[in-house]
Amino acid sequence: MGRALDGWLLAQALRDPGGTVALGADEWTALLAIGRAEQMIGTLAWRLNGIDVPPSVARILADARASAEQGRVAALWEAEVARRVLAPLGVRMVLLKGTAFVAAGLQAGRGRSIGDLDILVPRAALDAVEAALLEAGWEWVKPDPYDDAYYRQWMHELPPLIHRDRDRMIDVHHTILPLTARITPDAGALLADAVELKPGLWALSPNDMLVHAAAHLFADGDLAGGMRNLWDVHCLVAEFGADGLAGRAAQHGLSHEVARALRLAAALYGEGARLTPVDRLYLYRLTARDGWGRAMRPITRMAFYIRSHWLRMPPAMLARHLWTKWRKGGAGPASG
Amino acid sequence: MNDSRGDIVYRMARPETLKIVHLDSFTAVFHRASGITHLVTSPVPEILAALGEAGMTRADLMARLSVDYVLGDAEEGSLDARLEELVATGLVAVA
Amino acid sequence: MRHVFQVRIGPIGFRIGSDWRAPIAQLETLYAAYPKPEDGVPDFTVRLFAARPWRRVVRPAVMIGGDYILPEAAPLPLAQGLLAAEMGMNLQMALGQRHFLLLHAAVVERDGKALVLTGVSGAGKSTLAALLSLRGWRLMGDEFALLDPATGLLHAFPRLVSLKNASVATVAAEVPADRLGPMLEGTPKGTIRHLVPDAAALAAMDAPARPALILFPSFGYDSATRDVAQSEVFVRLTQASTNYVAMGERGFDALTALVQGVPARAIDYPDTDSAIALVEAAWAAR
Question: What is the ipTM of this complex?
């Protein structure tokens, strides 16, 4: 057939849903596997809603939509419970990522799979927030002294908490990048300019959502989930435009990252963009899925994994951190 | 009894958010807003039925239930506890 | 993935890729009479892969991957590759099935009505289902019951029946050799041998059935039968379902309707002959 069976297959289907009429059985099979691997099967299902697809595909996509809807309900409830628990503290609770998108009814939330509840609170309120959550039935996920100390001192969030009855995780952030990263966004501005969706429930302003998506994509990870992040960027720009975005990005020290995110999102899902050689490397890494949904191109992946940790920590600390983790028999980039 | 709670009106969460199915000694309640299934037994179905959509204060609820059931202190205490749980899980809303 | 196999089992299509030929060859033999996925597009992908390239050859260990994975699962030796494939398919269903409410149960059918045998692993569901299928019942499945929330009907999902330890000999005594897979020893669950469902089960694979009786079998006790209250059935079935929560309201509706509409009994038995007798008696009395 000649069509590449990698992340571009997913990108093209999202960009041009009608074009999927040309796909054969093997390509549909690959598309679904890649969509699942990128956590975007629900998104794909909504983009293809109403498009004429083979009956088996229609069934699979209908189930994906139903699944995403159930996930949406559960995510919104989680936010509601957290809101009730934190309301007495008078702390501004800002929803982040998927939960924010669905709470605000944004395009980016359509079909999204949502795992944890991510919220942003003022750093000064962290202790009070932590105490309130523990009191209300959340528990620590992993009591590991080394990780805990690292988390509290350097990370941009509390160690992960999980609710003992509902079995759902909450990530409490006080800024959007780890403290050890070279870049330090203006957390105060993020909170100050948040938008109130309903009493007690806030979301970042549209420009800040875009900055967060870019920050999360480049500086806070090894590009895992990158295709989904860039889809968020694409949807946010489509819905809100990019007025004032450059200035806001500069305020947070993320000009390069935001500009790159816009170019990559346009290349994958939009009208295309003028790409730098490094952009192409990023796209090569982002689309590294094969027709079985496996992550490919291991050398690039390894390079990005180490780079992402370098951004979080100065090299000396990184060496010590990695050595300790490997000694304990844990981390290393995921294989397979 | 805490007087500051005297004015609070408790009502069953809006009917479209609850699906109630009676299974012999237990009642299964599907809470649409959370997607959570609760399996409850006496006195919870009775509380939900009494509160209904209009809702009532705690005092009225006790009065209503004591028409059909004998309520001593122990029962009132456990009713308070159930009421709090129902509010926490969203099956009962407070106005 | 160098070696590929595709198969449709009831309403679900699977694609299985493998770094090794052997498990695929076994699947091709045992599932020879099964159809292929509808439209050539499977519902789920399973991958049998080597964790490191050299583990393809040196002490080969089969990691189980696919659309849905358990990150900390231990690999199986290559000799148990067939078991890995079956576990991989179970995993996709357990984690990814969103159309049918799944119950961990064996199902057999007679006269268009279904008997559901549910309960904890090791209670003998697979063995009972296999033996009943040799005594005039149609096998619909031994691992998962697929309940359609829209209709309340059970859909057949007749995978290879997983016989364990003592029941291998019990059932093998009654079936021709070509319906049995390889003897797999030293698996996490002891000795396992797979049984291919008979031609009647395969021919009727797409015919659903209305559930008429739920039984909770317990092996190792004196023969006894007791009714099970609806609320107990409800709780036990939610515990036996891997996707009840994910199914949301559809799951609630399907399960409450099942529990209210279908009688349930618990049966205790000391041996398989007693079991069959109790099952037939419960069915007649339902």
Answer: 0.89
